[in-house]
Write a structure and sequence with these properties.
Chain lengths: 476, 478
């Protein structure tokens, strides 16, 4: 049988049926919808960041105008009493969106990605009042093209390939084909690759539509390399599933057995193992209680308020160069709030550190499970590629807290001395800028499980190839 | 006759290694779900109780303090863990655990437990409810796909009918066995989960009787789900020629209605009725607060002032008495602004929860295509882990915030005349501020709020049964 005959036959038998075309159409629609839903999420985040930056910029422009007025007219200026207080300087902060952020929503719909940095807020409330999103969507997981691929690509491959030779064998046609000189092995691989090729073609066509629909300000030049890597991951993921299907299909069993076995593997690898791993990890590696953290912070806040004079004296002893401006108009509660917030932050910093440490060690423990489920491995790489992983969000929160601590150290003496900062000094204060890990470093973390899956897939391919040499054209 | 059919079907299931294997896996997953769920939720409950005690202690130890400063420090309202959260955590992990009852501001609940859960939990979540919703249908499919089609292929169906067994009796017998096995798994899961929750009932405000009723309600709705699944499975097995085709079709139905549509429905609802992002929500709320505040000389403002002072004094004021009263005017302004702002805050949150309700209604419409969506709504509602339960807590916490802030403002208003913000409340004053004694809504509230979901699920169950018996009576090909 020539290759063109096989392709024509396969096309006619498998893909010209209304049910098959409907299935492919439904798959493409789900992928395109996933791309569109991811883009909507991304655009909302981008708009929120732009709005946040503009709001802070406007607020600080007003603050600077007042300060310049005070510098020009002195005590004759009609400005609020706290004008020029470094305590009132606020900074915009946000987690930059990666070029392919719309391809995997990850944790970006759950964790803070933008927020005001202000000395008025202790660390525990640095990012607050953001818990507004629809909890049902969060609970069921945001839908995006990567999630659609993880869940549905294996299913489509299973539906089209589970009976790659079993259907003919069950119907008694395979023996006829072999009697006419066809090789079972060639027939098996050619059919498998053709059918998988059609499914992958639909996948990449939908992905290209999602890519072309654009993602805000990211240029095609920035998106293309990331998309190339995303495509490679999809191919690796698809290859693993194809070889798994081939492995099951190469047993001399009925189509019904193949289907049951493959569906069982799909449910286990994409639904049960990820869910069970997550639940077990949460029970085995609980994070320190945030409620206890809050209780500690409030206790320190209360104690600091009760001993405010002592705390202020201690600060003065630590900064002997300070001269308190007795004529200052800046109200006393500004100084008091600064001291309380700084003390609370200092006291709770070890708790925050242990919290972050616990989160990291748990993620490391879970990392081992990426080797047992391709869905876990692919998901972690997709979110790293999109820049929407929990780790990247945690890094952002950590950097925002560090930035605040650095700023508090820089202007603390001014605040306690009740001295306004001058506009020249204000211009020299650096803005918050997120220093993220390079893409390669992020991906390198998740590549080992993917390479393991690749080796496993190659191993299965060799095994299947050997088994097919002696495959019987009739049911065993 | 029915007894003989039931006996034969049970023997076949016992002999079918695949069904027993899957039954074992379902059992294992349920045990894992129960163990991890109980461990996580019990730890969370202990944390809540400890945090409540710590918060109370810290509040009482404030010493001499300006009451407005104390109103900013205020209290924390901790949401109790729903006793059946270990069965179905629902959306409780995504709604925050504690609300800061701060002066001037109605805050959302913070510290969503899901933020600290492993990243992986977003890919797929795991609980007893999850196993029953996702995996139990597979067990039903596996037991039932070949029930009729397989017998027809082997020729035994013709034999059975020929020996006098009516198709309806055959169907009924097969239905009783398949649904019975699935129901036994369900009953064991619900009974064990409810019993453990009863044993660990603490001061969370839920009663034992309420918990048992919740367990029975869950048993009923999941039972309906099983009825529906079994009837659809037998219907498909009856209508198609080969067992393999029945299996393929049923697995397709499972993927679409159990795995795909619930996720897609949530995503579609969010696209059609998008939740506001937090920046927009607060910007709109600030604008509404500004618009709602009358000028301090206006009649509306003075009317609120009068109402606030009369409430604080516990008597009506004479016509011109307000201006002559010796009270702390700063505190009066604070309390007036609290009363005025309440309205705007309540409207903003009501709109937010109304949007969640619109999303739920849209998902409910889509549950016409998948009973799993209606079941998920019911399961969350009866477990006390749905948005309705959280809204109830949020409203009660807001009442408590108003009471606390009012107590502080009134103390300063009545006892701090002439001292402006220099007034300090005595240390013993904090003991007079009421504790937050939250009573969660009973199961009756969940019943009434989820009546439409129950109707949809009932419709699904009845329609599937009717279709199965209608086809079974007249059109079974032998």
């Amino acid at each position: 049988m020539r290759m063109t005959d096989l392709v024509a036959c396969e096309w006619k038998m498998q893909f010209q049926r209304v049910s098959s075309l409907l299935l492919l159409l439904a798959f493409a629609s789900v992928l395109i919808y996933g791309g569109q839903a991811g883009r909507t999420e991304h655009d909302e985040r981008a708009a929120a960041i732009a709005g946040h930056n503009s709001e802070i910029e406007q607020a600080m422009a007003g603050w600077l105008d007042d300060l310049r007025e005070l510098e020009r007219l002195g005590s004759a200026a009609e400005v609020p009493p706290a004008t020029g207080s470094a305590m009132d300087v606020v900074f915009a902060s946000s987690l930059p969106q990666e070029p392919l952020a719309d391809f995997a929503v990850g944790q970006s719909d759950l964790l803070p990605f933008a927020g005001e940095i202000s000395l008025w807020d202790p660390d525990i409330r640095l990012f607050s009042r953001y818990e507004i999103a629809d909890p049902v969507s969060l609970a069921l997981g945001s839908f995006d093209i990567s999630k659609a691929v993880i869940l549905f690509l294996p299913l489509l491959l299973i539906v089209f390939c589970f009976d790659v030779i079993a259907a003919d064998r069950d119907a008694g046609r395979l023996g006829l084909a072999v009697a006419q000189g066809a090789s079972v092995r060639n027939l098996f691989w050619q059919r498998l690759l053709f059918r998988a090729g059609i499914v992958l073609f639909v996948t990449f066509a939908a992905a290209l539509i999602a890519l072309a629909s654009g993602s805000g300000e990211a240029s095609p030049g920035a998106r293309l390399p990331a998309f190339g890597f995303w495509s490679l991951l999809v191919l690796l993921y698809g290859f693993f599933w194809l070889m798994l299907i081939a492995w099951i299909a190469s047993y001399n069993r009925s189509g019904e057995f193949n289907l049951l076995a493959l569906l069982g593997l799909w449910a286990g690898l994409t639904l049960v193992i990820p869910a069970a791993t997550s639940a077990t990890a949460e029970a085995l590696y609980p994070t320190p209680s945030r409620l206890a953290f809050l209780a500690d912070a409030r206790e320190v806040e209360n104690e600091t308020r009760l001993q405010e004079a002592d705390v202020a004296n201690q600060f003065m002893l630590d900064h002997p160069e300070l001269l308190v401006d007795q004529e200052s108009q800046i109200p006393a509660f500004v100084l008091s709030s600064f001291l309380v917030t700084s003390t609370v932050d200092e006291a709770t910093r070890p708790i925050v550190d242990s919290f972050e440490e616990a989160l990291r060690s748990r993620e490391n423990a879970i990392g081992l499970f990426r080797f047992v489920s391709p869905a876990i491995a692919a998901n972690s790489l997709f979110v790293e590629l999109a820049g929407t992983s929990a780790r990247r969000h945690q890094d952002y929160l950590t950097q925002a807290r560090q930035f605040k601590a650095g700023y508090a150290e820089l202007v603390g003496p001014n605040i306690v001395a009740k001295q306004p900062i001058d506009s020249g000094f204000y211009q020299t204060i650096p803005e918050f800028s997120f220093e993220g890990e390079a893409l390669f470093a992020r991906l390198a973390r998740g590549m080992a499980p993917m390479m393991f899956l690749l080796l496993l897939s190659i191993g299965m391919m060799l095994l299947v190839n050997r088994r097919l040499r002696s495959a019987s054209p009739i049911n065993s | 006759m029915i007894g003989a059919i039931i006996g034969k079907e049970l023997t076949e299931i016992r002999r079918d290694g695949r069904a027993l294997g899957l039954l074992g896996i379902v059992g294992l997953l349920l045990v894992l779900g129960l163990t991890t769920g109980l461990a996580t939720e019990n730890a969370r409950e202990r944390e809540v109780l400890q945090a409540q005690a710590d918060d109370s202690a810290v509040f009482l130890e404030q010493g001499e303090k300006n009451p407005h400063s104390a109103a900013h420090f205020s209290r924390m309202a901790h949401k109790p863990v729903a006793p059946l959260a270990s069965f179905d955590p629902g959306v409780s992990s995504f709604m925050g655990q504690v609300i800061w009852l701060e002066a001037h501001s109605r805050n959302p609940a913070m510290f969503r437990a899901a933020e600290d859960a492993p990243e992986l939990s977003r890919l797929e979540n795991f609980s007893i409810a999850g196993v029953l919703t996702l995996i139990l249908p597979l067990l039903v499919v596996l037991m039932g796909y070949g029930s009729i089609a397989g017998e027809r292929e082997r020729g035994t169906l013709r034999q059975l009918v020929g020996s006098g067994a009516s198709p309806i009796h055959l169907l009924l017998g097969k239905f009783i066995v398949i649904a019975g096995v699935a129901f036994a798994v369900l009953a064991a899961a619900v009974a064990i989960s409810t019993s453990f929750s009863l044993l660990s009932l603490s001061e969370s405000g839920f009663s034992g009787g309420d918990l048992v009723l919740r367990g029975l309600s869950l048993l009923f709705v999941y039972g309906l789900y099983i009825v529906c699944l079994t009837a659809v499975t037998l219907l498909v097995s009856m209508l198609v020629a080969e067992a393999r085709t029945a299996l393929l079709l049923l697995l397709g139905i499972w993927v679409v209605t159990v795995v795909g549509l619930p996720r897609l429905s949530a995503s579609i609802a969010e696209q059609v009725y998008p939740s506001p992002d937090s920046a927009t929500f607060w910007e709109d709320t600030r604008a509404s607060l500004q618009a709602n505040r009358p000028p301090s000389e206006s009649e509306d403002y003075v009317a609120v002032e009068r109402e606030v002072v009369e409430r604080a004094l516990g008597r009506e004021l004479r016509v011109d008495e307000l201006d002559d009263l010796e009270i702390n005017r700063g505190a009066l302004r604070l309390e007036v602004s609290e009363v005025i702002d309440q309205e705007a805050y309540n409207a903003a949150y009501a709109e937010l929860f109304a949007n969640y309700e619109k999303q739920k209604n849209l998902r409910r419409m889509l549950s016409v295509l998948s009973p799993t969506i209606a079941l998920q709504h019911l399961s969350r509602a009866y477990s006390g882990t749905d948005i309705g339960a959280h809204e109830h807590f949020s409203l009660e916490a807001e009442r408590q915030r108003n009471d606390i802030v009012r107590a502080m403002n009134e103390d300063m208003m009545l006892n701090g005349a002439g001292e402006s913000f220099g007034y300090l409340s005595p240390p013993e004053f904090w003991e007079t501020v009421p504790e937050f004694d939250y009573r969660p809504p009973s199961v009756a509230t969940a019943w009434s709020e989820s009546a439409r979901d129950l109707t949809i699920l009932l419709f699904w169950g009845l329609a599937a049964m009717a279709a199965m018996f209608w086809f079974g009576a007249d059109r079974t090909r032998v």
